[in-house]
Amino acid sequence: MNYRKFEALFIGLGLSVILATILTSYLNQSDYVEIIGQAMFGPVLFFALHYGRKAGFLAALVSALLFIVAKFYVQDETMSTFIPEIILARAAVFGLVGIVGGELAHRMKYLILKFGNEELLDGQTNVFNKSYSIQILQKNIENHRRYGREFSIALIDIGNKHKIFIDDIARKKVMENLAFSLKENVRLVDDVGRWDNDRFCIVFPETKTQEATVAIARIDKLLKAKLDAIVKKVEVALELKTDLLTFPAEKERILGMAGLEASDTVSENYGLGLGEKAVQGK
Known about the structure:
Helix 1 runs antiparallel to helix 2 and helix 3 runs parallel beside helix 5. The two termini are 24 Å apart. The protein folds into two domains: 114 residues, no CATH class; 158 residues, Alpha-Beta Plaits (2-Layer Sandwich). The protein has nine helices and four strands. By secondary structure, the chain is of the alpha+beta class. It has a four-stranded antiparallel beta sheet with strand order 2-3-1-4, with helices on both faces. The C terminus is likely disordered.
């Protein structure tokens, strides 16, 4: 199961539970603020599973504040003594769904593969390997063919400024740290892979150039700060180079990366059906 299916499954289950609690509250003639408060779990769950724990926390915070304002707005004398307990309990559950849910989803994305298809992960960095990254590219290309969904990819190269030899231990430390930072600072729906020894590939599904440019500028800034800290430990001058590509604007280059040809775009077999043409494991 890939993360998209995992996300859809748990959002579906979560919405089913939310709808059931809303219906129960309605039948029990609960006040409308309680019903709205239960409905707010929907956006919190979506942001946690789609964007990660940081977005989940922000969604939980906004939902908790809106619930507090609404609750105090409709309070009366018979329920005023219970309001602090109600608010604290609801805020705690919002936080649990937003933060803990996002954290668990973040860990599950790669654990799903680690225990089921470990050969699809890079053993050193625990991000996707090149073989699986190619499959991800093919899937996004197929989605564009079928539904017209644009997507973007970022290639991040780690360069050696002065061409000084860097031993395997130092290289491993650099790549592990940068891979961890990448996983921490992209959306859960974005896919991070190790394309080559010194290169990462991030796939941003359904993301246009403008949106990807904003995302990669933020990531690039964070990675450079991380790299500066690493450089002090390995004592080698390193630098980052980021190349942003968007499909279909850079169609031919991305097709080449995916092991496809431009002529395949008019074929019914274009995309994942051409798995035998992919450059597996390079």
